[in-house]
Write a structure and sequence with these properties.
The chain has 71 residues and is mainly alpha-helical. Helices cover 63% and strands 0% of the residues. The protein contains 3 helices and no strands. It has helices at residues 4-24, 43-55, 59-69. It is globular. 7% of the residues are buried.
Length: 71
């Protein structure tokens, strides 16, 4: 079982890997389906990509940014 710091580190690694994969992707990503079959992009990251595509932002990132500024 992963401890909280290990879990956070594992999520960070997954996000970094997904960002790298998306940056190196040859075609423009315009929908969730465009990343559906890309190795290394899992369901949860696909959901976040869909949110960014449909709303232009990621609510969780926006909330974390607001919290960080309040400290």
């Amino acid at each position: 079982i992963l401890s909280l710091p290990d879990l956070a580190s594992s999520k960070q690694h997954a996000y970094r890997r997904a960002i790298s994969i998306i940056k190196s992707h040859k075609s423009k990503i315009e929908s969730e389906n465009d990343v559906k079959h890309i190795y290394g992009i899992g369901e949860k990251i696909r959901e976040k990509i869909k949110e960014i595509i449909t709303t232009g932002e990621l609510q969780k990132a926006k909330l974390l940014s607001v919290r960080a500024r309040s400290f």
